[in-house]
Design a protein that fits this description.
Elements: H1 4-33, H2 37-63, H3 83-110, H4 114-147, H5 150-159
Helix pairs in contact: 1-2, 1-3, 3-4
The structure holds MU-OXO-diiron (FEO).
């Protein structure tokens, strides 16, 4: 049976993952409204991933005989100044999620909840990927601002070069 502290911490994290989903859905709408469907697609994919994260925690709680207690989800903002501002917010948001996954892992250690520790290791690796992807998009958008798109097109061409 799962401890009350672990159950509460997992329910909090479910709320955070669902808020992430809401935030990215709002960002998708912002991009699509700004005629940037590619960026909108990126955000829709991220949004679906966040719901999957929430459901992994939800299923884990149920499997362990815990109680799922859904809380209100805060309303995300709806306006941004640029694609770069959105990408920077995604990167900052993912860093916050990483900190909260690490705090959750600390709780699992304190509670001696070995099953939760194993389950959370997936999330720890996932956050490395999430932060890396967001940082790459921020870096690319900054490059475009500083040096235009030509350098990115050349970088793309070089990435396709075969070794001979
Ligand atoms: Fe659920 Fe993007 O972390």
């Amino acid at each position: 049976m799962i401890s009350k502290a672990m159950q509460d911490a997992l329910n909090d994290q479910i709320n955070k993952e669902l808020y992430s989903s809401y935030l990215y859905l709002s960002m998708a709408a912002y991009f699509e409204d700004a005629n940037l469907p590619g960026f909108g697609h990126w955000m829709r994919v991220q949004e679906a991933e966040e719901r999957e994260h929430a459901m992994k925690l939800y299923d884990f709680l149920l499997e362990r005989g815990g109680k799922v207690m859904l809380k209100a989800i805060d309303a995300p903002k709806t306006e941004w100044k640029s694609a770069l501002e959105v990408a920077e917010e995604v990167a900052a948001h993912e860093a916050k999620v990483t900190a909260s996954i690490h705090a959750l892992y600390e709780t699992a250690l304190k509670e001696k909840d070995y099953a939760a520790q194993v389950m959370l290791q997936w999330f720890i690796s996932e956050q490395v990927e999430e932060e890396k992807n967001a940082a790459e998009i921020v870096a690319n958008l900054k490059l475009i601002e500083q040096r235009g798109t030509a350098v990115l097109m050349l970088d793309h061409r070089l990435s396709k070069r075969g070794g001979d």
